User: Fold MATE family efflux transporter from Limosilactobacillus ingluviei.
Amino acid sequence: MTGALAIKHEINHYVIRNILANVGLSTYVLIDTLFIAIAAGSLGLTVLNLALPLYNIFNATGLLLGVGGATYFSLHKVKEPARVQTTYSQLMIFAFGLGVVEIGLIWLFLDPLLHLLGADSQTLGLGRTYVGIMAFSAPLYMCNYITINFVRNDGNPSLTMMATLTETVCVVLIDWFFIFKLGLQMEGAALAVIFSPLCSLLVLSRHARFKHRQLTWRWVKPQLATLKAAARLGLAPFMNEMSSGVSIYVFNWMLLLLAGNYAVAAYGVVANVAIITLAAANGVALGVQPIASREFGKHAPQNAVTAFWHGLKLTVTLAAILMLGLIVFKAPIVALFNTEHQPQLLHYALAGLPIYFTSAVFAAANILMIIFLTAVNRGQVSFTLSFLRGYVILLPLIVLLAWLGGVNGVFAAMPVNELLITLIGAGMVKNELRRLTA
Assistant:
């Protein structure tokens, strides 16, 4: 097998497992959304969507330390293993402590936080219940993201796939039991959120038996230098995930101002279905990342370039298939979540879904470009692209298109933004590929 073919084969190995893992987790999110729709109706969906930015904060912090720390680990584990011997332990200890602080802050400022997120008299009670409980998942989500990325970069992608799929199956069952058997409704959905990363971490603990592992656990004090090294390389995925939270927040507020809670509930349906396409795109990108980082670290840049082009073909093809499928079957998808048969929710979701999903192919390409630039130690360029994608272009577009096109204009902001970022990112990546192969 030639070098290029070997790289492609290895990427396929990583990508398949990452896609299964990511789509498995997003399936849980979809099922959880469906359960909430059945148990608490449209207002339950609204509360879930108002709380999503908090999940993005937890996930973004996990990615900052997890992707950044694991990339740093991959870049140095071959030639300088002693340099990264305690990186994982330091990041885990820091993340857990940070998560405990976040729990305290959420409980201390619960009502002001809910009002800031967009809760009104209709949704405040449900919001207190849901957010107050899900806050306890903060340290677990961060530690889970760190562990998944380190285990993947330590040569064990099969275990990360198994962890996420096991997590999905277990949490769906727990979710169902709490919501329907115990009748806990929103309380049950929030409790299931805590079990989600716990199930994954239990499976990931089996990595201790992996005979080729380099990861070890040490009780050490987190060092500022380690946190900085991880944050520098993890800043792009952090900004990428945070941009999702910020954009959801702005989307929610614009829709509340234009049309009220049912428009937010419709956006919640569309955004949660969109998680499937984003999960697949992240699966491809995170499958390319360990190989591109390793080859770059071994001074084999052509192999890193091969990894990028192969990943781009995979992610664009997959996104196109998912986009077409979701648009064709939009009516039954929306009907599934509209358990109260609300005509307003139905109207907004049916109109918004095909508009929103035209972004899928461009978003998939953008995610790969951002992660690849990080993988080849071009964190600053990657950060610039992430910042443009999540903030500089998207946020003004949401406001502008809302003014021009109302609710449909809000949904159109996403595809317009992703298209512009693809054009800008293509130029950035072209320059980096030329530099790597010079």
In short: The first helix runs from residue 3 to 76. The radius of gyration is 21 Å.
